[in-house]
Specification:
alpha/beta; binds 4-nitrophenyl phosphate; four-stranded parallel beta sheet; about 45% helix; about 160 residues; globular
């Protein structure tokens, strides 16, 4: 079992998009039993709120339905997940701070796996939800490819048990 938490600032745009996109990729490959997938915000600003409607509409245009209620990440959440995948450098510093700098080996920018390590621009400010979608989708695809190659033993274990 591999646990993955996607993290952005508000948890109403980018990280719930990443959560639902990654869940769909995993489901398409029949890998759901091997994963626990969630998302969080570094702030409590949007706590209790659903996915921001323009983000939800963008997901639906790509045939990805789904719901999420925003919540702030805690140190316990960081300890309890194998991979913490943040959207930008501000999220990275915020998560490191919440973790007390104790978990840096499992915290990555999502686009580290595409090779460019770029920030996923916040569509709350840019209003470019399609750009956020494609940048997130590419990160999710490359992250899953990385796991299938580098964490093969986790999937083989789940198949046997
Ligand atoms: P997100 O976008 O971090 O991708 O969910 C934001 C959503 C809300 C706010 C900022 C960013 N806000 O200031 O409330």
């Amino acid at each position: 079992m591999i646990s993955v938490a996607f993290v952005c600032l508000g948890n109403i745009c980018r990280s719930p998009m990443a959560e639902l996109i990654f869940k769909k990729l995993v489901e398409e490959r029949g890998l759901n039993p091997s994963f626990k997938i969630t998302s969080f915000g570094t702030s409590d600003w949007e706590e209790g709120n659903p996915i921001y409607p323009p983000a939800k509409r963008t997901l639906e245009r790509h045939n990805i339905p789904g719901e999420h209620i925003a919540k702030q990440i805690s140190k316990r959440d960081i300890l309890n997940n194998d991979y913490i995948l943040v959207m930008d450098t501000n999220n990275l510093f915020a998560v490191l701070s919440i973790s007390g700098d104790s978990c840096s080996e499992k915290i990555f920018k999502l686009r580290a796996f595409t090779g460019d390590n770029s920030d996923i621009a916040d569509p709350w400010y840019t209003l470019n939800f399609e750009k956020a979608y494609s940048d997130i989708e590419e990160g999710c695809i490359k992250f899953l490819e990385y796991l299938l190659k580098e964490r093969k033993e986790a999937f083989d274990y789940d198949k046997r048990h």
